[in-house]
Amino acid sequence: MSKAEENADLAALAEIDRLVHEPARLAVMALLYVVDSADFIFLMNQTGLTWGNLSAHMAKLEGVGYIEVKKAFKGKRPNTTLRLTDKGRLAFLKYALHMKHVFGDFHG
């Protein structure tokens, strides 16, 4: 691989959406990409994140408009449901395609 090709690969990596790229947020977005919505407990169980960690990542994703959070009650219990917004769905799809492109020519 030439130096120019290596630099192009590094430049492509620099362009990734770091908000999505963070492993915990990537796991949350990947799960939400394949379902219509999911409740907080389901996401906590599936990702292995603690309540505090998931809450912090949820706040970041909600803050940029990637997820929508709905708080309601099921009977007398609070229930928090998350879903990807159209903006979040597009961001995840772009991220996935970008990573496929970055690693598409990788021959390890």
Please provide a brief summary of the model.
About 65% of the residues lie in helices and about 15% in strands. It has helices spanning about 5-15, 20, 25-35, 40-45, 50-65, 85-105, and strands at about 40, 65-75, 75-85.
Topology:
Blueprint: H1 3-14, H2 18-21, H3 23-34, E1 38-39, H4 40-47, H5 51-63, E2 67-74, E3 77-84, H6 86-104
Antiparallel strand pairs: 1-3, 2-3
Q: Key terms for this structure?
A:
108 residues, alpha+beta, Arc Repressor Mutant, subunit A, three-stranded antiparallel beta sheet, 6 helices, 17% strand
Inertia-based shape = elongated
CATH class: Mainly Alpha
What's the CATH H-level homologous superfamily?
A: Winged helix-like DNA-binding domain superfamily/Winged helix DNA-binding domain
Order of strands in the sheet with the most strands?
1-3-2
Structural class: alpha+beta
Strand content: 15-25%
Order of helices and strands: HHHEHHEEH
* Alpha plus pi helix count: 6
Could you name the ranges where pLDDT drops below 50 across 5 or more consecutive residues? none
Instruction: Give the tally of β-strands.
Output: 3
Please name the CATH architecture.
Orthogonal Bundle
The total number of structural domains is: 1
Which percent range fits the helix content?
55-70%
Report the mean per-residue pLDDT as an integer. Answer: 89
Query: Span between N and C termini?
Result: 12 Å
Query: Largest sheet, if any?
Result: 3 strands, antiparallel
Q: From the 3D structure, determine the CATH topology.
A: Arc Repressor Mutant, subunit A
Radius of gyration: 17 Å
